[in-house]
Amino acid sequence: MKRICLQFVLTIALMYPSHAQTMSIIFDSDMESDVDDVGALAMLHGLADRGDVKILATISSSLNPWSAPMLDVINTYYGRPDIPIGNVKTFGVYRNSKFARKISEKYPQDTGLGEYVQDAVTLYRKLLSEQEDASVVIVTVGYLTNIANLLHSGPDECSSLNGNDLIKKKVRRIVCMGGAYPYHTDPRRYGNFKPDPDAAVDVARNCPVQIIFTAGQAFANAIRTGGILFRSAQNDNPVKESYKIFLESWNREYHHSADLIAVYVAVRGYEEYFKAQKKGYYHIFEDGTNLWRETPDNPNHMIIGEFADGVDPDQVAEAFDMLLLKK
After folding, report:
1. What pLDDT does 51 receive?
2. Per-residue confidence (pLDDT) for residue 290, from 0 to 100
3. From the CB of residue 126, how many other CB atoms can be counted at a distance below 10 Å?
4. H-helix or E-strand spanning residue 123
5. Phi, psi (deg, nearest 5) at residue 152
6. Closest Cα to residue 24, out of 212, 172, 129?
C-alpha cells in the first residue's frame, strides 16, 4: 500500500513540476555606458539570495576592457566570486564608462581585464551543453553581439549542435532590454540596438526561441530606483559607489530602471506589474531604428512597455529597490 501511494505521489510530481524550482540564468551586459547595468546585476544577485535563480554566468558584450572586471566586482561583492565570466572578442562595440575602471581598480576582482577572460561564445556553448533541455533563460541588457555570434556558431568540442540548434534545445526564452515606448507609431533609434544594429536585426529575425523585449524611455523612467543605495548604511558597496559616480553630474539620487525591468521579468515574470503586447512582431531596421508592428504575427516575439492596470510606478520602484541591497 505504501509503495502504491509513493508511486502515486511521484507520478503527480512529474506531471506537475514545482514552480519553486530555481531558474538558471545567463546575464549578458555591456556594463559600461549606463549604471542601470550595475543595478540589474545587483538585482539578479538579490533574487539569487532569495533562492529564485541560479546565475550560470555573467558575460560582457562590450570591448571596454573594464566591463568584464566590473562584472567580477559585483559577483564578488555579493558572495559569488566564482561565477564564470565571458567577453566578446576581437569584433564588437567599445564605449567609454564613467565608473567601470574606477570601481574595478578599487574593489576585489581577479579578472584583471576583459581580454583575459573566456570568449563569450565558447562559454555560452559550454554552459548550454551542460544544462537540461529548455532550462536556461538568457537576459541581455547590452548589445546583441554575443547572441548573434552564438546563433551562427558551429559545432565544437562542447556540442555537436550548431548555435541555432543549441539555443533551440537548451534555452527556454531570451529577455532583451531594447526598444522604445510608445512602440506602435514612433520608430526611433534607441539604446542597445544602435551600436551593433546588424546583431540586433539578426537576432530579432532568426532567433529560434521566444524573445521578450522590454522597452525603455518613458516606461523605464517612471520606475525610479537606486535611492535606497544612497540611504543605505552599507558602505564599501561597489553598486552604491557606481550610482554615485554616474549620477553625480545629474545631481540626483535615483535612475531609470530599463535593465532592471528585464531582469525582473526574466526571473519573476511580468504579470504582477506589467502588460505584454503579444500580437505582432518587433521590427528592427538596418540602422537600429525599431518599432512594434501588429502584422505579421511572430509567436516568438513579445514586448513589455506598459504598466498593468492600477499599478503605481513607485510601488514597482520600492520592490526593485529592496532587491538591490546585499542581504
Report:
1. 96
2. 87
3. 17
4. helix 120-130
5. -105, 15
6. 172
Cα radius of gyration (the chain): 20
Per-residue model confidence (pLDDT) at position 185 = 60
* Whole-number pLDDT of residue 211: 98
Q: Which residues contact 136 (CB under 8 A, 6 or more apart)?
A: 24, 25, 26, 56, 127, 128, 170, 171, 172
Q: Which amino acid is at 310?
A: G
Q: CB of 224 within 8 A of CB of 256?
A: yes
> Residue 225 forms beta bridges with which residues?
255
Closest CA to 324 of 225, 220, 223, 233: 225
- Contact (CB, 8 A) for 203 and 151: yes
Query: 3.20.20.70, 3.40.1830.10, 3.90.245.10, 2.60.40.3080: which CATH number matches 22-322?
Result: 3.90.245.10
Instruction: Name residue, grid cell 562590450.
Output: 62
Query: Residue 206 corresponds to which cell in the numbers above?
Result: 532568426
Q: β-strand 281-284 against 171-177: which pairing, if any?
A: unpaired
Predicted model pTM: 0.92
Burial (0-12, 13-18, 19+ Cβ within 10 Å), 245? middle
pLDDT < 50 stretches in the chain? 1-20
